[in-house]
Write a structure and sequence with these properties.
Length: about 375
Amino acid sequence: MITLDRVTKRYGADSVAVAELSLTVPDGELCVLVGPSGCGKTTTLRMINRLIEPSGGRILIDGTDVLKIDPVQLRRSIGYVIQQGGLFPHRRVADNVATVPRLLGWDRQRVEARVTELLDLVGLDPDRYGRRFPHELSGGERQRVGVARALGGDPPVLLMDEPFGAVDPVTRQRLQQQFLDLQATLKKTIVFVTHDIEEATKLGNRIAVLSKGGVLEQYDTPSEVLGRPATPFVADFVGADRGVRRLAVMPIESGDLFHPPEVSPGHSMLDARAAVAGADSRWAVVVDDGAHLRGWIDLQPGLTGSVGDHLVPFEVQVPVGTSLRAALGEMLQHDVRWIPVVDDDRYLGVLTPNRLHAAMRRSVGGHAVEVEENPPAR
């Protein structure tokens, strides 16, 4: 756990870069420092590993004041990633990744095993990339090597200073997703600096919005920062389209779903209509005995035969936990008004536009809205 207790950095009598900043980053969480240029993001990050010495306050890592630790020892115990990876240009990839383990005095066999493990972890073949120099890599590859090097000594804490800021947008999105997958496995305690609120909301468990002089305007989850800005500064910084952005940080939950009538693929159409007569529905979801989704049927009068004869497969389905933004994107892409949600291969219910709206309002404590109980099949 990282605790900043009234941390201050002054340059001269009148220049305050960070003003009595207090916040806590719980174990295994990723905290994003975000704000405009000059708000003290990088200064705060560098005070944690004492590349910049604070003028006042305390910085604790697992209860220990970093000012009481030898700076060299402290930095070797904290991973640090900057733009373009900050690699040593004269050293090969394997030697870059081995930097901290060698400084820690690991034996050769252990170092080589760690380098191989880390390059595999970040998706780079050790045999293919280990002997290359940084200039022989793409921007995204250099950034992944930078992450691997930061993880060399298996530090509990990572500091990341706009690590994806110098790559193209497509590579950046791919690196962000790879990093999220990596963090889901490693669960490091991370402080991450960016000026991009979209990156902050995608990656962070918590977001600290800073204004000029390192003033903390809000420290909360992405959904709260986007849904309930604490100050006019935060509202202005996250933008007028924050409602749309919030779709990306809200996952689908089982309570968000509508449950239309269900019928078995073995029913006749007559039996199917009789089974759902009380629901006053124009269509039904077809689910087998194992709760596996088979498709849907139109319940209009006149259709005869079995349910299987009139079964319409779904064009798309999404797993529970998918972001509301991704689900809405699938609805628009396939031109459908509802989309089935599954847990592995088990059907849970359907998401409709009204249910999506209700989920958004609940995320910030809004009042319930009237939900559509009988959406059209298309």
